[in-house]
## 1
Amino acid sequence: MANSNSAQNTPASPELPVVNPTRRKAVKAGFATLGLAAFAAAISPLRSAAKQTSAQAFFQNHYRELSAEDKRKVIARLEAETKEKYGAEVHIADDRPIPGTKFVYAINLSVCNGNGNCVKACHEENNHDRATHQSYIRVLEMDKGSMELGNGDSEYQGVVPKDGKFYLPVQCQQCDEPPCVDVCPVKATWKEEDGIVVIDYNWCIGCRYCEAACPYHARRFNWKQPEIPAEEVNPDQSYLSNRIRPAGVVEKCTYCLHRTRRGKLPACLEACPTGARVFGNILDPESNIRWILENKRVYVLKEELGTKPAFFYYFD
């Protein structure tokens, strides 16, 4: 089978300036003091670094501080901006965790053959920039008998599977002790009740501390405004998930919460032709994922780090 794994390495770039974590409070105070025109001039360098985000977005409160009416207005603005920039009609929901749910993922490495369909499905489902072929998933081609991630090849080519190799998909592990959350200076990322680690993309300042803290290379920095043809935009979106992210922010896998919180399966799982992927609610004693964790010999990546991933691997 031909490999469609197309994840790319992050391009080299000059170091970004560190932004004061109290930026938003400061700029709001300045706005009130100086007036619109003077204050716009005063913060023009910062606004340039933020890729000239709209004024409404720049002064928007943190997601967890928004009232229901605030969210309605924010979502309406984002939908209108998407229409203006991409020529696509989209619907952005505010999908919240399902009570009594903790989502967990597992991959059967005996079955995964490295075809890369999961990478492609993630790319399309989550409205990634088309030119860079970005995805939240890397599939590493590994030598049998080795679990050293640094030796894995995410840019392998040719027919798969290859003799002497196995294939290891890696994405956000939705850790119970997420180091990415701990280092964020503005609390733009947090873990929700159903186990999914999310990001408020309108609050992220792009410092990339979370990207550096993640031991699984699971976070991506948006170096430019994503380019997606209107006909390829996935219109079924969610605020904390697959809406089109602005330039200058870090983004990550959310277990397709715009699907899974509505009772569907992640796009990567549905695209897998081998049945290697299993997803579900670990709190449900009748779920397939619960059976696997109780009956298979499962392991997690980099267990010694104490991040307590909610992403498991096993062999038959």
## 2
Amino acid sequence: MSRQKTIITCAITGAIHTPTMSDALPYLPDDIAGQAIDAARAGAAILHLHARNPHDGSISMEPADFARFLPVIKQATSAVVNISTGGSMTSTISDRLAPAMAARPEMCSLNMGSMNFSFHPLAERYENWKFDWEKAYVANSKSYIFRNTFADIEEVAQTLAPHDVKFEHEIYDVGHLYNLKFCMDTGLFKAPIFLQFVLGILGGIGADLDNLVFLKRTADRLFGDAYRWSVLGAGAAQMPLAAAAVQLGGHVRVGLEDSLYVSRGRLAVSNAEQVAKVRRILEDLGHDIATPDEARTMLGLKGGDQVGF
């Protein structure tokens, strides 16, 4: 039996880091597109995308801001496009759904529960900020609750179901697996499902190998062979957990959304640099990297010709 190929997802800009934290973090549409294309060329089969306000780098849920870069990416690469349904933690669920409804991508991310979600310690690391909104946004995250109630999850699933969108189910703690099992039992989601274990976010499960093994063991018990999984290690945990995940049969996610660094103390110069590094690690361990079309087959996606951009 041949070993499965490994899917690399790259999360290009996210909604946590701000422009002050790294000059490499893209927020202009051309930069988001360029870094996404370069990441795909480096080996990312899936591109996980957020939008930013091009004037000040703040988080945007405006479909028009996504439309500035989605067609460019589609024209230049065959990578799977995955659009966030998270985005700003102060936005309504309808606002968070608007970009996905406009773009009708192959995949969307979907957090499987409400949770504390904080990155406020970062506010103390910087003295001079590029834009006025940044420090308050980061500091105030200590009071943020990322909301995804069962009603919210149902609304996302039912709204996007007619467009045959599959989900990157983001699992920040073990209870999220049980939330997902309940949703599958009630018919909201169908196999194969794709789990993204998220370790190391303040408010979620810690970035420990024991936690990763426990999450996988729990998913095995709940979902059997009806799922695929990947791991996202926040910050310094990015590369070590990626290496561990692939040895356990999983896939990997990297990108400047999840970590601004490529090694201890060295900021990444681009998303592609992180993709290239994790690809080297995986190939050195004997793993082959999945193409976008191979990822589509593994995850049961509708195909890049069925999107709305």
## 3
Amino acid sequence: MTRNAMCSMFNIEIPVFGFSHCRNVVAEITRAGGLGCLGTAYYTPEELEWELKWIDEQVGDKPYGVNLLLPQKYETVGEASLDPARLSQEHVKWQRDLLEKAGIPELPASEREELMNAELGRLHMTPEFAGELLDVALRHPSVKLVVSALGSPPRPILDRLHAHGIMVGAMTGKVEHALKHKEAGLDLVIAQGTEAAGHTGVVSSMVLWPEVVDAVAPMPVLAAGGIGRGRQMAAAFALGAQGIWCGSIWHGTRESDLTDEMKQLLFKAKSGDAVQTRSKTGKPGRMLRSKYTEAWLQPDAPKPLPMPWQSVLNVEARLRIDRARALEYMTCPVGQIVGTINQESSVRQVIYDILDEFADTMEGLGERSGLV
């Protein structure tokens, strides 16, 4: 695929881009000829340095990317604003009653403060913190792509990245946002349909991809949302994309750092079990359905808090649920492709399967359609 625009842009073998918070997944995607992109939302600068150094050692001079929170505006300022004591007591009581009724034990008093502080320390959305993470990324020459998860990055950051020879992309669920990315001078856009995991819009991939491709041409577009098979990759190219961006499909791999319990829940899930919910962050995000996500839909449930307070509220609940291994209440971000994640595989095997089915699909398309 040497004539492919994305392969030429990054000097990679296949236009398969993979997002993960797990360094093992990112490294293996890159080693297999694609481009892995590390999600950094919950890393401190020190932790990110360790992760990128490890990836460097695994991939040699192959390029990879990082996903940073680089919005034009920030909703929180400093750590003090995330003090749990400022949470709505109505919400705190409702959530504690929910966990108590479920028989999920409280955190040990001797460990609670340390556990809570460690998790709360990962919830950052300030210009200063983003700048520290960016400084870390720029110290690693093999980082050739930075993706902004919350809109186009501020102009000074964009100029700084371009000065280092780094390509810059951004996620979009709307044509209007894609046009803003193009106007801002980004190098590529990732059109993410509502089928995807995490924060998404409401437009499906089948509709969104060609709309974005037409709107920002000749700017290259990566297709995201509901891709985990070769036929879906073929559809992305048929609709004008120059590559694919996959996230959820790596959850079921041996390289994924999800717990065995969480993987088993994913293997049993159907596509319809990936639901949009405000229960995690306060904004609509696609998660695995659980008794916890369902509880927020009940008549007695309070309205989810705005971002980032819903995330702060969830810290203790998640720690309690995970510690108790309360499977019916466990959840994680996952897209509707979860219905095809039925057993453990490897990152490399997933990529091989996608490419094999893609080749077969392209070769047999004319015959199957009966129109060529």
## 4
Amino acid sequence: MEEEQHEIVIVGAGIAGLATAVALKVVGLPCLVLERSPELRAAGAALTLSSNAWRALEVLGVAHKLTPLYPAINRSTITDLSNGSVKVVPFSQNNSGDTGIRSVHRKGLLEALAEELQPGTIRFSSRIISIDQNSSSSSTTLHLDDGSVIKAKVVIGCDGVHSVVARWLGLSNPVHSGRSAIRGLAVLPEGHDIKDGVLQYVGDGKRAGLAPLNDKELYWYITHIADEREKDMTAEPALIMKEVTENLGKGLPPEFQTALLNVDGATISWAPLLFRVPWGILLGRINRGGVAVAGDAMHPMTPEIGQGGCVALEDAVVLGRCLGQAKRSGGQFAAGVESYARERRWRAAWVVAAAYLSGWVQQGGSEGVCRPVAKWFRRSIYYRYVHPWIVESIRGFDCGELPAAE
């Protein structure tokens, strides 16, 4: 089969992959996006995007399509299930033009990004089976399962937690956090009363939450200590809901029970929470020549501060800027990839570490002596001092602008 030649190939049409393709279009660099699924994947149902993500979406020219659909979230109300205490954490805005925090449909975000791309940019049902790099010709060869061969000057792996590109680079495998998450959407035809805030509930080994997407839909989640039984349930929505209603959902307040009674079964997922250890990002090879990783392929993280998708959008803008500048400097794309890696390595490692710490504390630490200490720290110090500092410092990040196409 004849080889195809492309300047830039992106592996994966998730948030990082599509956003990177849009960023490259803005700077005037065409690309091909290879997606192994037959259509856009929307696993996870919804996600919450903070100010740093909305700044990236504004740079990409996409924010205006989403903000009218999803109201801003102004606060988080956190209830300690063990003693009933309640803390209200306001979400401050960094400036008058700050879009704030909003929960969005994952599918809606993917479609908004995909609409910006030229027809044919995304090639579905395209799975990579091997990668070769020719240092003498500064090109990378991708072999696909249908026998086709694609050569590119730049390959960006945006292919998720179990990334083929990350494995080829030699990055360490993501590790299990010891926690798992069940997620879904609840659709209430008569509407709900959770208008401008997120409701969170924390207890021993469990954290749950409700986030409004609009007047009738709620994104809900339960994170918990991992259980061996979940291996037999992850692909069975009915079994997942049985476990939620009979076990994990017990003790949660009436508004959460109402959401569970109105679940859209097609949106339910149960998955282990994996992350790449921060030193693996700092010391590992996240790029080689014209090959690099972005999004979950580089920095899978636990969801406690809601930054997985946000940081992926930052990656896209930085990648677009670095490759756009490389184009202006005579097409030295490997140097552009290296510049991207330098800029993103520390930021990604810090957010992964902050997310893990946040989850460990909010779910009450681990079994044994750590648990009482973690509970005391959560009640007395974490929500008062540490959590606000972490989330505001992360949400206040500005990924910068993109150079205009020449």
